[in-house]
Write the structure tokens for this entry.
Amino acid sequence: MTLTFILLKHLHVWCVVLSVMLFCVRLSWLRKQNELLKKRIVRILPHLIDNLMMISGIGMMLILHYHQYLPNWLALKLVLLGSYIMFGLLAMRKKQARLITSSLALLSVFTIVWLAINKPALSFLTF
């Protein structure tokens, strides 16, 4: 493995950790109606972290030549990333469904992490 790949992987993992932690903190603040949610940095930081996470992920895909052949586990991770974004957005905006949507967002993330660690064949999926 190249040094570039290792640096991208570490950046990617740190962005995942920061993204989930910030999501949970923002949910807590939302529940308590904390004024910190209105701060500009709190509104911008999740977008910066998530974009950096996606850019580092794309960089790793290019280094590993996954742009030529996308494994099923990676395709599923991309679908789950979309569900994390969608459920996270709903959790932040819809009070009546917050418990369900935040739980589904976190379930999406935990599944993504499981897929990243185990990289199963998933032969039942054909993309």
